[in-house]
Amino acid sequence: xxxxxxxxxxxxxxxxxxxxxxxxxxxxxxxxxxxxxxxxxxxxxxxxxxxxxxxxxxxxxxxxxxxxxxxxxxxxxxxxxxxxxxxxxxxxxxxxxxxxxxxxxxxxxxxxxxxxxxxxxxxxxxxxxxxxxxxxxxxxxxxxxxxxxxxxxxxxxxxxxxxxxxxxxxxxxxxxxxxxxxxxxxxxxxx
Length: 191
Prior knowledge:
- The protein is mainly alpha-helical.
- It has helices at 13-30, 35-40, 78-88, 112-127, 133-147, 162-176, 182-190; strands spanning 2-4, 10-12, 47-50, 53-58, 69-72.
- The strands form two sheets. It has a three-stranded antiparallel sheet with strand order 3-4-5, with no helix packed on it. Strands 1-2 form a two-stranded antiparallel sheet.
């Protein structure tokens, strides 16, 4: 099943799926939102083009912490989001009739379980380590604690006694990557 992309070449369903996997990972790196928010993102409602970039917005009623999320995504993601919306997303059946950012081939929005599994499969394929969407939050918190310990409070999803939690996260990541320094290589490969 292929469609002709606006840029001229055919896009297979597998290519579209893989492109979506990469974009989900890029968004999680830019702003590690909870799985529910990642999966429920709608074009125009939650992800809106503003000027030369995109804003990712969720009302307080749509977040677990009941706090509004309103972040400007890195401008360098703009072209990738534009291309997803214009060229790849349209490969999925019914894309023109619905606004969820993530679609599946079974007609309709991709479920939370589907988004979770696609992220896990993609990270295992690309990085050699299965990383679930929530672990991106751990990675960001740990990365900030290691590289900018004085700014650890910039991670809004950390509880007041972050030192204990960060210690647990660091041990978790060391165990997850079998303590061979893979964790730091992941950042090198992604950065």
